[in-house]
């Protein structure tokens, strides 16, 4: 009988011990939501422990300090801004406070088809740079128009323009350079990028990029002016009345602007890219629509695409057809 009682008590104690262990594990290891904390410069380990406790990152300041003491990590803890989970194990919090930079990153999305000025505005609005004009100056001095790769970036606050430019150029090297290296034609890298930047501003449908690229390449081949509206918009610059960099509704007066970027006035390609093209636009220039001999296109607002024509007579008919839809 005594053996049975002893066995029952032992089982109950074992169950209680397991339950306590599971509960403790869940208590110390069940991560909560992310939260941002700031560790000021000059604070000691005890103060850091209290900041973590107050923000519910750790459950016990005592256990955190014990872990610090035995790991010898206290001198290596960083100050700064950290994103941590509530209820993290002390060991993982210590690892993060040693290895994370302590610098808050800001997210910014650089869209395809943006010019340097638009990129600068987005960076300033995201607090990544302090002065958009300093960025514009640095980017233009680096001849970086078209080479600032459009993507979503995470940058720390108040970066130097040259640092941001270097990161974006590195992304260009990673994403665009390999495509250009595969190209076997006669265009230079800058010429490919220039046409791609115009395609980027013209195309709405991805499927039409190779066709639009083919039109401009056909014109270059026969020595015909590009007559591309986006190059005129680029030459006109910021339109204060519309509050935008790409003026809508190009007029005959606009087409007379004396700029090397006015492809209605000057033959050949403009001096360089007018925007940051996407990978797809670069691919379209490298691999244009085969056997496509169109020289003109007009936007069809009803479909979101374009109507392509081989000659000017067909082009005029297409324009009339589009206008009749309105």
State the gist of this model.
Helices cover 48% and strands 10% of the residues. With 326 residues, the protein is mainly alpha-helical.
Q: Extract low-pLDDT stretches.
A: 18-28
Round the mean pLDDT to the nearest integer and report it.
89
Radius of gyration: 31 Å
Strand order of the largest sheet: 1-2
Overall form = elongated
Give a structural overview.
This protein is mainly α and 326 residues long. The chain has three domains: 27-99, Dna Ligase, domain 1 (2-Layer Sandwich), CATH 3.30.1490; 105-175, Endolytic murein transglycosylase (Dna Ligase, domain 1); 186-293, no CATH class. The chain is 48% helix and 10% strand. A two-stranded antiparallel sheet has the order 1-2. A two-stranded antiparallel ribbon has the order 3-4. It has a two-stranded antiparallel ribbon with strand order 5-6. α5 (116-125) runs antiparallel to α6 (132-141), α9 (189-202) packs across α10 (209-222) and α10 crosses α12. The longest helix has 28 residues, at 2-29.
